[in-house]
Fold:
Amino acid sequence: MDKTTILVCCHKPDDNIRTGYPYFPIQGGKAIHPEIDLGFPGDDTGDNVSERNQGWCEASAMYWAWKNLPRAKYFGMSHYRRYVDIDVSDEKIDEEMGDYDMIVTKKSSHPVNNSKTLQYFTCRENFWIFADTFLEMHPEYGNEFIDYFFNQNWFYPCNVFVCKWEVFEDYCEFMMPVLLEVDRRMIPGVYTRQVRAMSYIAELMLGFFVHCKKIKVREANMKTCYEEPDWAGKRYFRSTLERKAYFTAERWLGKLFFRLSQAVGKTHIIADPDVILWLEKDGIKLNVLSKPFYYDHSRDTK
Structure:
């Protein structure tokens, strides 16, 4: 049994693709692009969701690894130009992991909370479908959902990490059934960000998983083999000091409202009425969030 397997998600040729042990390059979306052959295994064999790669991005390769790769002591996720900047050799990996369950890349943050971030990345309807689906499937994590998505603005970017194999399995068991159900309920969008809605949800799910499961993590640098582009979201958030101040004030006022709500025991979330209306017009019914979903304050005293 190999000690470590680091999956390298690829979709096109690139000089930065790492191929030597413990790296395992895989061609994502092979089922929808059979004409492309990178010379690596594809994510279209065995139990797979390769045909969903356009929307899932690296999550389709992660699903394939979860279902098909032989077990190792450690598992890692990387992209062809993004890697956790640690020594993953057999001689050093135990030392790098230490007493931690997972090594993640350093936190990223936006001026708004994580629910607003997902709504900006995709659309409001997609976020509420995700929220409704998760809370229906995992009501036991309702407090953590409200806290992470409505009070926090940090996340671990790009699903790039190294962890113990059992933590990887737990992560996939936590995330994949939710992604499959959200994907089933969601109506495909025509805009690029909406098409990739599932990948944005999966990206924020890493931090949420750590938050819910109290995973012991160590943060490390992300090794990027390219110059980070000035993508639309960054231009949007950095366009003016006034806009940054507005979003920061909105987030802190939201936290203040949450704390005040805690004091009177009435913290809850509910989908916006216009979102509920438009989803119903599309034949989508929110099973949980068409009415208030309450934060369980009794857990705060335990």
